[in-house]
Design a protein that fits this description.
alpha+beta, DNA Polymerase III, Chain A, domain 2, 3 domains, 9-stranded antiparallel β-sheet, 8-stranded antiparallel β-sheet, 6 helices, 26 strands, 16% helix, elongated
């Protein structure tokens, strides 16, 4: 195999596909990138048996072939090469020769025969969506994806398409995030996309104006983003009926400036830590919210003037969960809906129904 390629092209491609390469694999080939050079096209793939990222770039191919090269070393080499033109050649002993300007490397490769078969599947449904819309939907919900491997169903997000509306739902037991957008599709489908895959999708989206094609199979899903294809197994199981968890009543409703509330909770949270956790208490009356917290470190209090509709109430929250929800609203103002001290707080936009965020309260004990 022999090919010549632009250094900037191969550096970007290697960095992106390397994110799907296994770092601690029992099979050495899985720690490498599969390179195929055919028809003046260079195809590179990374695969960790769960997630695969593949891309193709232009190259001048003199001798066609394929090989596996160690991802970490190859990435460092091509990134530090001195010239823009890079020539890569292999011989029958699986030695890889890399040349650029006066720099030359010889490294050991692995036969492509030792690389596991990449995931392939029959597409049962296809959806197209704007890259910018999908990026915002994932960004605003991925924070609520669980990292608890004992409940794998919630380490991903539910993608639901029905009645020309696409929803992404994430739940981790302490909060829930729902984001929806109208799309031009007659599809009706539900599938659970791993959080890891969603994180990689966010990194690969570089142009918000382009369209992304989603192909759904029986057990796999693929996202085509520019010249990248990312494939993953779907998470199988029964996702929570999220609609039943949204409180129906609205005992207390507050319209509030998002930045003001974020800054106030941030101030109160200064006396908390991961080791010393104590709820931030919201004491809500008709014209203000008093925020307070007491830990072994000390006490903190703050007041935000608001206009409240409904009952006065007191409720406590983990500051981290409230802040993450508020920061992902991306709105100047939000509506807070409360139903007593034990029911989740609903955060929604002042207008429209683009998102619904739920935060489960912490039980309050003594007074401050």
């Amino acid at each position: 195999m022999k090919f010549t390629v632009m250094r900037s092209d191969i550096v970007t491609a290697v960095q992106n596909v390397s994110r799907a390469v296994s770092t601690k694999a029992t099979l050495p080939a899985l720690e490498g990138i599969l390179i195929k050079a055919y028809n003046n096209t260079l195809t590179m793939s990374g695969y960790d048996m769960e997630l695969a990222i593949t891309t193709s770039i232009e190259a001048t191919v003199s001798n066609e072939g394929e090989i596996v090269v160690g991802a970490k070393l190859f990435s460092e080499i091509v990134r530090k090469l001195p010239e823009e033109i890079v020539t890569v050649e292999t011989d029958e002993r699986m030695i890889i020769y890399i040349n650029s300007g006066n720099a030359a490397y010889q490294i050991v490769g692995i036969s492509s025969m030792e690389y596991p078969e990449m995931p392939r599947f029959d597409s049962l449904d296809e959806i197209k969506i704007s890259a910018g819309i999908l990026k915002n939907m994932i960004k605003q919900t991925i924070y609520a994806v669980s990292d608890n491997i004992n409940k794998p169903i919630y380490t991903g997000s539910l993608f639901e398409i029905k009645d020309k509306v696409m929803r992404i739902v994430s739940i981790d037991g302490y909060r829930m995030a729902i984001r929806q957008e109208n799309i031009d599709s007659e599809s009706e489908n539900r599938f659970i996309v791993p959080g890891k895959m969603q994180g990689e999708i966010l990194k690969l989206i570089s142009d918000d104006e382009k369209e992304i094609e989603i192909c759904i199979g029986q057990r796999h899903v693929s996202f085509t983003i520019d010249n990248y294809s990312i494939v993953s197994r779907l998470i199988e199981g029964n996702f929570l009926d999220y609609r039943t968890t949204i409180p129906k009543n609205e005992d207390t409703t507050i319209r509030i400036n998002t930045r003001s509330l974020i800054e106030s909770v941030d101030r109160i949270a200064l006396i908390t830590s991961d080791r010393v956790q104590s709820p931030v208490r919201f004491s809500i009356t008709q014209d203000e919210i008093k925020l307070s917290c007491r830990t072994a470190v000390g006490r903190a209090n703050d007041v935000i003037p608001v206009s409240t509709i409904g009952k006065d109430t007191e409720i406590g929250f983990n500051n981290k969960y409230v802040l993450e929800a508020l920061r992902n609203t991306e709105c100047d103002e939000v509506t807070l809906v409360l139903n007593g001290s034990l029911s989740p707080m609903v955060i929604r936009p002042v207008q429209g129904d683009g998102f619904i965020f739920l935060v489960v309260p912490m039980r309050l004990n003594d007074e401050i």
